[in-house]
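Morning!

This is the sequence you dropped in the shared folder:
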Amino acid sequence: MGWPDWQSRWRRSSIGINPPLLLILLYASIAVLGGIALKFPFASNELISWSDAIFTAVSAITVTGLVVVDTGSVYTGFGQGVIAVLMQLGGLGLMTFAVLILSALGQPIGLSHRMVLRDDLNRTAVNDLLRLVRTIFLVVIICETVGAVVLAFVFVPEFGWSHGIWTSIFHSISAFNNAGFSLYPDSLTQWRTNPLINIVIPLMFIVGGLGYGVVADLATGSGWRRCSLHSKLMLAGTAVLIPVSVIGFAALEWNNPGTLGDLDSTSDRLWVAWFQGVTTRTAGFNTTDIGAIHDTTALMFIILMIIGGGSTSTAGGIKVTTAIVLLLATIAFFRRRQSLVAFGRSIGLEQVFKVMALTTTAILFLVVGTFILLLGHDGEFLDAAFEVASAFGTVGLSRGTTAELDGVGRVVIMVIMFFGRVGPLTLGFFLATRVGARVRYPEGQVYLG
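The structure's back. Tokens below.
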């Protein structure tokens, strides 16, 4: 049997697979394969359990960064390489798998699905998606290469050429993909006042967290007026959230001896406040002890982690644009307006329904996840909520709860990490499938509020 016949039969046999299901199976398969690779004897310096390996693989493919064992000391160069590959696949996944992998595997993508992908990638046409995927790969290669080269000026003098270059590459991949994995148990705390670390790492995960549609708009140099509505909302939201998070962290932690209070100079405190403020929504690196932050700061972090980054980016959360549309819808309701308007453009009711569905689903996951986690761990409510929010937002910050999770707790966090990464796109696929109403019913009155 020739290749064309085999390919035709395979396509006919796979045509019944639902695209969201195929996407979930694809991510799950990669996570399992990654866990198997991490369980190889030569992948770790000490014996690790299957739970350790699978948890690490899921955390890497979902670009979360929550760890149950120390990445740098427990895993060998091979194991660290597996984690780096998983982070790269996970970071690219939501932008490219639906367009490139599904079509390459023979799964047809219908027009309605293509329209959602077109909107998510902020394109005006359906036929340029593959070209955009190639652009994404080019942006990733350039950004991660430049980031690794600059980071080498910090790590090579300290660790030598071999270890220094690998450390630079690993952290460049981790930063751009908003993964938060570090080769050191205190993350980047030992370089908390280093200017290069405080500039390069945040710049990489901010760019990765904006989304490639926004980056493409900025790269054209056509100016603010030519940017899409999505890009304008994303840039405006980011411009507000970054100073709010940085100033908020500095104000709340300035005199805390466990975080900023032990630093001698104002400039050092500002460096740490800047880094920790911008990393909270997306990346999960830390340059201070997260377990020592005040409860008020932890609550602020939970809100920021739930918001997350941009659509079709390497970040998680409900997304900045989702939070903005929710806010606009609330304002429109109190002003008795029937439509949403932003930057001279209207936002359709269908988009509002999608935002409501995503937010409601996220709230259910957060509440149920926190409840189950508290059942098995009689600890602080805030710590459990923080852990769940970090997993959902694929952030990777922890107040020390990750290492104490039992089997059930690990499963809960893995499920939440998985949904936080795959859920928004699969939900988009379901919402893209229009089903006409067969029967129309008379309108009824429901009293709300």
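Headline: Confidence is low (pLDDT under 50) at residues 1-15.

More detail when I'm at my desk.
O.
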